């Protein structure tokens, strides 16, 4: 049995630093964990995944270079291997065939980092390809408790056990595996955390770019995981066998192209019929609904804005910022900038005629909004820091120059 290396939790008071933390702290390394990560959602919203995951990585790399930080660990994924070349996978397997947008974003980011390291040889970059993280800290103080319906197996098990979900649906039981259920390589989240610490330590002796898989090398089927959970908790879960999902169309680790073809044929036939039947009705309905939804969203945002900034403390802050922006402390500036940016957003979306009786400092026209010296100073500061979209500036300039 491997030794238990999981460290106890250390609770510390975290300092809130509004604005750019890099101006107050020095860093030796960056661990890039941020990004959207749901495979199914990435299939439904590919542009969202490409936009968020790629753009944030490019921004992070730029800041890393600007600050002279030479060490970076990237949270990648085993999805970059796509259809497995062989099982078990190792770091030498090809990575040019990700089968979903989420996996593609990881693959693209890996290439970006490889190119960056080639252009900046002084940088040390480690790519960590996760398999299937699961579990919680043994203290049970932190763990896997996602908002909404979970997408991963372990939180589904726990939510069924405590009654938050009615049942566990095992998607498919006719795979070419010993018990018919899908096999995955699960790795404990604490092991994963230790992997990141080890990656940082490895950079001292292994310069350049390195790639490591983070997994156990031993797959376990869904039914095996369920059985282990039931043995440990001594609780029988309510479960049933359901249809396989697109993410699980594998046979022993290899994509079943025949099954995909059959599913696609069925879905395609149904969708063509329904599309032809409903297309005219939906087009008309969408035209009518789009206008009403946009108006509703705009009005809801304006109402929330009024309610929040009409509170005594918030109203006093705005009046203080309008009078003299430079006299605000860092936290006050941070909040006042939020007020100005949100108010400009309402102008951009046309929500400019709300009830001023409930909000004395809210003005009907953009010209009135910018009359206080503090508001203009705050706006100019946001523009200097590139916190305001360029397209807004042209609208604002036109409004302020109108007589």
Fraction of residues in helix: 40-55%
Strand count, sense and barrel status of the largest sheet are: 4 strands, parallel
The spatial strand order of the largest sheet comes to 1-2-3-8
| Poorly predicted runs of 5 or more residues | 1-5, 246-261, 279-284, 286-299, 351-364
Descriptive terms for the model:
two-stranded parallel ribbon; four-stranded parallel β-sheet; 12 strands; alpha/beta
Describe this structure in words.
Helix 3 links the parallel strand 2 (71-77) and strand 3. Helix content is 48%, strand content 11%. The chain is globular and about 75 Å long. The chain has 403 residues and is α/β, with parallel strands linked by helices. It contains twelve helices and twelve strands. The strands form five sheets. It has a four-stranded parallel sheet with strand order 1-2-3-8, sandwiched between helices. The protein has a two-stranded parallel sheet with strand order 4-7.
